[in-house]
Amino acid sequence: MRALLLLFATWLAGAAWAGALPPEVDAALAAARLPREAVTLVVADVDPALPPLLAHREQVPVSPASIAKLGTTLAALDLLGPAFTWSTPVLADGPVVGGTLQGNLYIKGQGDPKLVLERLWLLLRRVRAQGIERVAGDIVLDHGAFQVPAVDPGAFDGEPLRPYNAGPDALLLNYKSVVLGFVPQPGGTARIVADPPLAEVQWPPAVPLSNGDCGDWRGGLRADFADPLRPRFAGAYPAACGERSWPVAFADPPSYAARAVAGLWQEIGGRIGGVVRDGTAPAAAVPLAETVSPPLAEVVRDINKFSNNVMAQQLFLTLGLQLRGAGTREAARDVLGTWWRERISADAPAFDNGSGLSRDMRMTGQQLTRLLQYGWSSPVMPELLASLPVVGADGTLRTTRAGAGAHLKSGSLRDVWGVAGYVDGAHGHRYVLVAIANHPNATPQPVPGTGERTTGMRGVVEALLAWIASQP
Questions:
Q1: Which CATH number fits domain 87-152+253-292: 3.90.1140.10, 3.50.80.20, 1.10.357.120, 3.30.310.50?
Q2: Which of 252, 267, 441, 457 could disulfide-pair with 437, CB 3.0 to 4.6 Å?
Q3: Model's pTM, two decimal places?
Q4: Regions of the chain with pLDDT less than 70
């Protein structure tokens, strides 16, 4: 009897809010200057058999931004398994004689999304440990596992130097980025340290120090990356900033991998008779060393906690490579579409590139709710849940106020902001929350004539979390 009463109370709550919004949520929308017609809101039990507590425009397709990563990462955990790893082998086509490799050295990319500087350095050190001091031929970089069109890193939003705009690559090295370190020195300058060292790229050794506050210190440097081989800084670095770092996407992405490998090979004492170039590893080449990525569960944490776009696209293409034998977007879309129709529902969304960094991708609140309800019942639920930002604590939602314990994936583009994930209710009850705004006021905007700013969709989410926490 008690269970029937609880079910009836849950049904009544869903019926009560299916056509209306809680007053505190309405007030938050007004503070954000967001019309009801611009938002999708769903609060539902993790059990799909129960009616939702709140459902507003849940069947309207909207831009999900990075929330789309939930589909990519859950499908990958489901299909590849949390322990899946990527390997990047190094091969040779000749013998080692007197410390010299008599032939070419090959680095064969297979889609590793986290082949960062430290791992690349260790991989090259393992090659040196084989007794190879010099490569008589070339160092050949094999990118052939993925077939993707060339990407203009500035095409999406005009920000080609933002690392999040890096394109996917079967041999993705350090996200095609350089980390610039600025270290104040006693003589009135800040020393510049660039990692990794890129062959033939000459960074200025230092910039002048200034006495201003830290503020927009990157803008104050007045960086000029027009010549990728001779970057310049016409401004100064504020001494008040102390030591800072600035991750920058390299201005010539196609040449990045070759320059990074050449620079690191030289730094560890290796020599080369030929050049570092792109090419294909022959089938007869002999393995010398390899590096193995962290397991998929750890990679998914990086993707969702910090909304890493290029890692998500690497994972997306890996699904096509592993399950259809082709590292193409078409193959990856086929894998995701089939998985969705078999595991979740017939109305599969049309995934674009797997990251949500797209103006074409559309999902409904209902689709996202079904996805998360399936995720809760899936054997990989612990890995998915652990990958989501903890509201008010870490990742992309560390500054959001939490009215209830919540693990939510955020997503943002120009005119888009939202979250989707799981929220703790009263007495250990769990809910799915989907809240997305497609509107110019989705993020905080200045209020004309007041000097104030609107709260944006983040304020609406905070009101929703407080409302969920208040439910009996």
A1: 3.50.80.20
A2: 457
A3: 0.93
A4: 1-19, 154-158, 403-404
